[in-house]
Specification:
heterodimer, A: 240 residues, alpha+beta, 39% helix, 16% strand, B: 214 residues, Cyclophilin, 8 strands, elongated
Chain lengths: 240, 214
Amino acid sequence: MKLFKFILLCLFLISPTQADTIYQLIKIPNLEIYNIKTENKLRYLNAKQAFTIGIDNNINCFKSSKQDLDKKYKIIEKNLNRYSQNFLRKINLKYIVMCEDLSISGINTAGIPDNVMKTLIVDIKFNQEYFERVLHHEVFHIINDSYKDVFNEKIWSSFNPKEFNYAKCSICTKKIGLDTYSKPDGFITEYSRSTASEDMAEVFSHLMHGNLPEVIDPILKKKIEFIKKGLLKIDENFIL
Amino acid sequence: MIEKIKASKSEKIIFLFVIILFLFSITSFILLKNKCLFVKNYDPNKINFDNPNNIAILNVECGNVIIELYPDISPNGVERFKTLVELNAYDDVAFHRVIKDKLVQAGDLEFGKKGNIDYGKIGTGKSGLGTIKSEIDKNFNYTKGSVGLARSLRYNTEDSQFFIILQDEPLYEGEYTPIGKVIFGLEALEKIKHLDKSEYVLRPDFINSLKLFN
């Protein structure tokens, strides 16, 4: 038995390091292909083991069961199929990484967008109630990161009442409620009040999910128009 | 009178063993020394090509690698490649990035030339012709032997570097500009020097020549 273990160890030590294509492309380890034959050419990957990335390894995510993946993949694909291949190319999104218990520096998060690596990491178990809407929210961050000039935060902030100020960052506030206000006052959810970028993402995700409040106040109306115009600047064929 | 001594049975076995050992050593030495021993060298002049204008012959240590170029899929990429081939720019350029059984990459004309290699910068060199736009819109199956243009992390940064894959890579579709496919001689690329611990090769193998067939 000892000899067997020794041989196994020797084989392991002398085996050459094999390059991982997925890691080469998006710099995330321990992933495997879930589905790459999609209409809009999005590539769906899943964690085959837990992975750690980021500065000081502060981003963690864990492997999901096959059953959970299969179930959530259908929902994710249905929602992301609404973005055309052309639009996805323009915003630089190509890889969807599916895993669970995604966190940054210990704080759970729904998704981590990275338009440089063309990747969106999605926590498939994040907030079941708003899961579909949250997907679009995260896609907006990719859009925003690729088109900062189109979605200018100063212009956006000017729609708000003068006395209102956003928090310094999305996690620097306790305003994290995702329930849609029935009577919005310029903000569509509590989380909208966190930062301009999150506010935009919330408006966009409601537009995509088709659950805008029945009553829309003048500020929110301006914000909706701003988002719509911005999207058409990126892709004149974009359909909400 | 000299008495004739007959070898005993065990002495005969030892003698036979020494001879076998000697033959084995010689054979192993030849095999190890000549990595190209079982690699077939294709003569392009003995092959009938459907489209001889789009055939490039990459000559490496173990023989010819015959590449069919696809200008219909990536006109600008193929044009750039042909321009550099016609200038003999790839001759004596290193296969600086080699991953065993996965890919070989060459074409750093600035830092990868034989006698002028800069190991600190290899892989970052330019051709002097500027970058070209990625051509990734058309469907292309990155199967074993496919040739693509390398680029930096961003699109539209293709220049002179190219890679040839030694296994199917479906994820490369839409990522890298395909310019062609090896139709003969891929085995010669499987013998290109690689390191087990690093993708970047110290004292690498070189392209002997890269020419167009016509």
